[in-house]
Specification:
About 25% of the residues lie in helices and about 30% in strands. With about 200 residues, the protein is an alpha+beta fold. Helix 1 crosses helix 3.
């Protein structure tokens, strides 16, 4: 008779932070390694957390997205109503210990359907000063901060789920304005490529 399977340990906020990092692994290995060490987790821990998260996402009888976040992250720090165009929704926000100045935000329609999940600046936390390309360091800003600083910015299709892109013009170190494309994972800046001049 095969040995009984041990029940899986609960999926914790630490595991969720490892999932966020796993999606960022392609861009900034040094930042990722530093963050992983801060969390006291190994590369194997990160892979296992991501495997378990993917299993939850694709389970035949898995929880709805909002319920899944509540079960993993607990009750949100804040829930606020928001209107985006013609859509009324609620913004649920949870603290992220790895990035104390950020919050993980989930936007949900009235029936609980989640249509956006990303990192945003925490209320009251100072926003970064973004004026030139040199200010756009990896992990320095969120999608909405970059879009406001370099308006008018144009959204670009992300290269994978949880990734977003922005196209905009920004001045380089010599003051020359250049066309740029920025890539974000979970709403946090990962890299910027100069694509030309306006």
């Amino acid at each position: 008779m095969p040995p009984a399977k041990r029940p899986a340990s609960p999926f914790t906020p630490l595991d969720f932070q490892l999932v966020l990092l796993r999606r960022m692994a392609d861009h900034n290995p040094r930042l990722l390694e530093e963050a992983r060490h801060t969390l006291g987790a190994s590369a194997a821990d990160m892979r296992e957390a991501n495997r378990r998260w993917q299993a939850m996402l694709h389970a035949p009888r898995g929880r709805a997205a909002l319920s899944r976040y509540r079960s993993v992250l607990g009750e949100p720090e804040s829930v606020t109503g928001r209107r985006i165009g013609d859509l009324s929704c609620e913004a649920f926000r949870w603290p992220v210990p790895l990035w104390p100045e950020l919050r993980f935000e989930v936007l949900a329609a009235p029936k609980g359907v989640v249509w956006n999940e990303w990192l945003v600046r925490a209320p009251g936390a100072p926003a970064p000063v973004l004026r030139t390309l040199e200010d756009l360091a990896p992990w320095s800003c969120t999608v909405d901060e970059a879009a406001r600083a370099f308006a008018p910015a144009r959204p670009l299709e992300g290269t994978a789920p949880t990734r977003w892109g922005l196209a905009f013009a920004a001045a380089d170190g010599s003051g020359v304005r250049r066309e740029c494309a920025a890539e974000f994972t979970w709403g946090l800046l990962q890299r910027v490529a100069v694509t030309g001049r306006p």
